[in-house]
Amino acid sequence: MTFRKLVFWMHLVAGCVAGTVIFIMSITGAAIAYQRQIISWLDRDFRVAPAPARLPIEAMMARIVTENHAAPSSITLHSDPSAPAEAGFGRNRILLIDPYTGHVLGESAPRVRAWFRTAEDWHRWLGADGQRRATARAITGACNLAFFFLVVSGPFLWIPRRWSARNVRAIAFFRAAVSGRARDFNWHNVIGIWCAAPLAVIVFSGAVMSYPWANDLIFRLTGNDPPTASQRGPERREDATPTLAGIDLLWSAAEKQVPDWRSITLRLPSGRGPVTFSIDTGDGGRPDQRAQLTLNRRTGEIVRWEPFSSYNSGRRLRSWLRFAHTGEAGGIVGQTIAGIASTGAAILAITGLSLAIRRLSRKFRRGNAVGAAGGESAAIARD
Length: 383
Fold this sequence. Notes:
With 383 residues, the protein is an alpha+beta fold. It has a domain at 44-108 and 231-311. It is built from 12 helices and 8 strands. Strands 4-3-2-1-5-6-7-8 form an 8-stranded antiparallel β-sheet. Strand 3 (93-97) and strand 4 (104-107) form a beta hairpin. Helix 1 (3-31) packs across helix 5, helix 7 packs across helix 8 (212-221) and helix 7 packs across helix 12 (331-382). The mean pLDDT is 89.
């Protein structure tokens, strides 16, 4: 068996085993490509009339608690004077607030957010919940690694053995007058070639987010130590009751830290521990435009200031990979490329499985034909 044939059979087996899961991850990835833009567009009617000054954060939160009988887990303000504030209740519910009066304007696209959450659950955990998510995550992680092998090995298999304009056209451009196996083969080659580069980035970044060893490898390859659990920060209990006292002064310090901020988000803290603000000078899709400011709850002094420029090379690369996975690192163009590549990956899964089934069917029919011919010859010999 030649090396090329060995790679082909590994490619075929990996595609057959992981094809269905790859299809699910690809189609859901394409579905959530423009999530931020779609939700922003749906919330376009929730604009507010600017006033001389915003309501203090503590007063705003107290009014939200009074109207909703529950404390939010996070609050986000935008520098745009006509943009509403966002009060988050866990991951699935966001209320839009008039920052000048504190009144609730409405809930941010509840049905669409629920739909996107379902799509994300299928993308990450194949729709599993509870304890089954660990198993589902192991499956999607393994299939993601298989997909990376498919993306890398595909171009090697598709490179023509003899370079000519005709051979290149056959694998690089769609052919209209073909059907059946020839159509599937043509689509599989063309889409695989044009989507190989963005898919390699998407799938590689997915593997880094799926496996701790892959995440740590990014740091080690850049000559840095992987972050420890304490460096990643303590986990916040969603059921912890947030305390609001002193938030106004701390929020004012966060605004002064980055005068050109466009949005500031605070996960409301419980107890008297440090308070961390996420400050963004962009639209939320670029890691180099984000920073974290941690302040002492009692004194207001800076405990930790972490702009992107302060990260080591490993953390910078890891941050870019997170947003490269969704294409957001490249803005709307990057999201479009990621969405097209994900759609292409779904078609690759379908055409790949179709080609495998056709190959298996041909072998089965050929085996039956040989068996029938052998039986007929034996009968003639007996006669």
